[in-house]
Model the fold of this input.
Amino acid sequence: MSRASLEKDPRDVAAMFDDVASRYDVTNDVLSLGQDRLWRRAVVAACDARPGQRVLDIAAGTGTSSEPFADSGVDVVPADFSLGMLRVGHRRRSDLGFTAADAMRLPFADDSFDVVTMSFGLRNVSDPDAALREFLRVTKPGGRLVVCEFSTPTNRAFRRVYSTYLMGSLPRIARTVSSNPDSYVYLAESIQAWPDQRGLATRVAAAGWSGVEWRDLSGGVVALHRATKAPVEG
Done:
């Protein structure tokens, strides 16, 4: 069984997600106490994609996050660099165009998508700033970015309780439901090392995105960052 480190070597991260692919969705549902479903709905609403538009769902895993777009008639491309995740997703939804893709070197032309979205994946990229610049490159002028990622609870008392859950209870629960429980130790460590809401917003803006804003979900356990690509002038 593989477990990535905070150095986030792409091969290690991909191998880790290959290991957890078969039970990934079930494990996330248990560990988030069902909150992941609410978070996915919030992402779909923030993307506000309409039939006829094209969405890149990067780090789509098994495609759970892509299904609402496809089911509403939106042209969605579920992409991930874990081949294990893509294989599981293709078995579930063979109608979706699962694509192998590295967030830092996307295999898509400039200005290809109306919306680029990434849920719980930016934290696992070895160079998130490079990924944010790639997302900008493949987004059409006037298009949107939606990033859903773990963040920092805004209430100090809840933040302490949450930190205790992350480093103590979460790995123990993962041992009962995950195919690779050690990977959830990495999950806890990577969440604690990730920047807070304002810190991520600063990085999104530095990558060239405009109108960056965020909304806290579940008391700041998760934050939904949104931004736009400036339209072409003239």
Notes: Residues 65 and 194 are 22 Å apart (CA to CA). The radius of gyration is 17 Å.
